[in-house]
């Protein structure tokens, strides 16, 4: 039986969730707080942790950080409301396996648990507890068709043929790792390893051992010799995601490896040659970080022989429906559904929404909607409410004063929301966070009836 640890401060919801999972053949423990969860993790081995994000004092993100720090080797699934989607995206960057929106859809949860278990089975036994190494299978690269993405692809094609170090700059979820992998697969190193490390999920202690390896006895817990990822990637490509998170000391060591092309294990006395192409990703401006002495300038120049700027999804609107179609096909396959496409309203909302979590968010929204949809086409009914909260502000006309711009925007937002919910006024009022009588007054004021 698979052991699942449920971390949830809402006791009745936790009991319900536990009952549901046990009915489905899982053995569960419940921890009412993140601290209680750490105690359970110290005592027992779990295959999966399902944790609430928002808990008083010490929340799901703190717990996730500590799980990674202590190298408990189990995937963490974060439960969150759509209002906290940004924290969920942060959780993914910190190494969460997946997030699921509350109210929890039981089939969606079972599907994520199954994936987490499959992923754990795929993990090679590398004699390491490394939480940050991602094992990628079934890589399928879909190119966008916007001019912005075409430009990126041109740069990818050009740089792939060289051995230059590449920095990929872009918001979380824009596809930086996919671009890195694409460069590797088009390079002469394609038959060798592509190793991906998420530096954001590595603590300082783990980072050195993870990157460079260690010899037995180098520190408490180093019970065997271990090769670092530089050695494992030898001949191939090493992708360091969130490189800005590496400490100054690790940056110094990294620079030495890159300059001398030699790596020495922690506690070791000899060097071995390594031939690795380095691709790094960041969503912060490393140049500024370097000028503020937060990132070593010499390392910055060494890793930045070529820079690729991957724009956020909202700035390459022509790509949105390309990926939406792709993720729809994938979700149909995975969930054994047959949704044929998107309603016009959905397309309009997809194009108007700002997608703070970029492609990753688009994929999750579609997967969830596919699961919930009962019609042939995906409808706005099943889109998360947050997608209606940030409806785009209209462009302004010359000579408009603030008051008239505000009214104009208000009118447009109400009109758009009403359309999206098919004039269901209770729903519209809820989305707009106003009461029904205020909504009726505004509908009258703007003649929207
Ligand atoms: N070119 C692509 N083709 C198909 N799917 C893609 C592509 N790019 C991104 N994706 C999808 O979007 C998800 C996020 O992509 P990726 O992990 O590369 O983003 P990232 O920018 O590295 O994110 P982070 O900064 O959070 O690590 C992927 O899991 C994949 O499903």
UniProtKB/TrEMBL annotation:
Point out residues bearing the modification 4-aspartylphosphate. Answer: 52
Where does the Sigma-54 factor interaction domain lie?
A: 142-371
**Residues annotated as domain Response regulatory:** 3-117
One GO BP: phosphorelay signal transduction system
Which SUPFAM superfamilies would you find in this protein's record?
A: CheY-like, Homeodomain-like, P-loop containing nucleoside triphosphate hydrolases
Task: Write the record's keywords in alphabetical order, separated by commas.
Answer: ATP-binding, DNA-binding, Nucleotide-binding, Phosphoprotein, Transcription, Transcription regulation, Two-component regulatory system
| Keyword Phosphoprotein belongs to the record | yes
Question: A Gene Ontology MF term for this entry?
Answer: sequence-specific DNA binding
Q: Looking at the keywords, is Secreted present?
A: no
Name by which UniProt lists this protein = Sigma-54-dependent Fis family transcriptional regulator
């Amino acid at each position: 039986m698979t052991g699942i640890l449920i971390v949830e401060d809402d006791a009745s919801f936790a009991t319900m969730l536990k009952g549901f999972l046990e009915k489905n053949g899982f053995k569960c423990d419940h921890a009412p707080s993140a601290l209680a969860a750490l105690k359970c993790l110290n005592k027992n081995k779990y295959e999966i942790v399902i944790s609430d994000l928002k808990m008083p004092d010490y929340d799901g993100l703190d717990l996730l950080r500590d799980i990674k720090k202590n190298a408990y080797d189990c995937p963490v699934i974060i439960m969150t409301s759509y209002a906290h989607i940004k924290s969920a995206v942060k959780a993914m960057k910190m190494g969460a396996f997946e997030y699921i929106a509350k109210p929890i859809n039981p089939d969606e949860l079972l599907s994520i648990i199954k994936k987490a278990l499959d992923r754990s089975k795929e993990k090679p036994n590398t004699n390491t507890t490394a939480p940050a190494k991602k094992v990628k299978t079934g890589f399928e690269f879909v190119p966008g068709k916007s001019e912005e993405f075409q430009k990126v692809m041109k740069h990818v094609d050009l740089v792939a043929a060289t051995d230059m170090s590449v920095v990929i700059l872009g918001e979380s979820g824009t596809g930086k790792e996919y671009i890195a992998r694409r460069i590797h697969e088009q390079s002469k190193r394609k038959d060798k390893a592509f190793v991906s490390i998420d530096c954001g999920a590595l603590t300082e202690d783990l980072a050195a051992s993870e990157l460079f390896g260690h010899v037995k006895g180098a520190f408490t817990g180093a019970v065997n010799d271990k090769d670092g990822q530089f050695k494992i990637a030898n001949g191939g490509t090493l992708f360091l995601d969130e490189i800005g998170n590496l400490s100054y000391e690790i940056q110094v060591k990294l620079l030495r490896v890159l300059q001398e092309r030699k790596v020495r294990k922690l506690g070791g006395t000899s060097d071995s040659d390594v031939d690795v192409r380095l691709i790094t990703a960041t969503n912060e401006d490393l140049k500024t970080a370097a000028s503020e002495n937060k990132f070593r300038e010499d390392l910055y120049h060494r890793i930045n022989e070529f820079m690729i700027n991957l724009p956020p999804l909202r700035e390459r609107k022509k790509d949105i429906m390309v990926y939406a179609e792709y993720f729809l096909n994938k979700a149909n396959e995975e969930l054994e559904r047959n949704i044929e496409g998107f309603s016009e309203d959905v397309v309009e909302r997809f194009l108007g929404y700002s997608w703070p979590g970029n492609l990753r968010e688009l994929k999750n929204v579609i997967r969830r909607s596919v699961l919930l949809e009962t019609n042939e086409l995906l409808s706005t009914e099943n889109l998360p409410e947050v997608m209606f909260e940030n409806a785009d502000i209209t462009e302004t006309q010359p000579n408009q004063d603030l008051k008239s711009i505000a009214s104009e925007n208000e009118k447009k937002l109400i009109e758009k929301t009403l359309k999206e919910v098919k004039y269901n006024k209770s729903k519209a009022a809820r989305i707009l966070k106003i009461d029904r009588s205020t909504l009726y007054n505004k509908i009258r004021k703007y003649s929207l009836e």
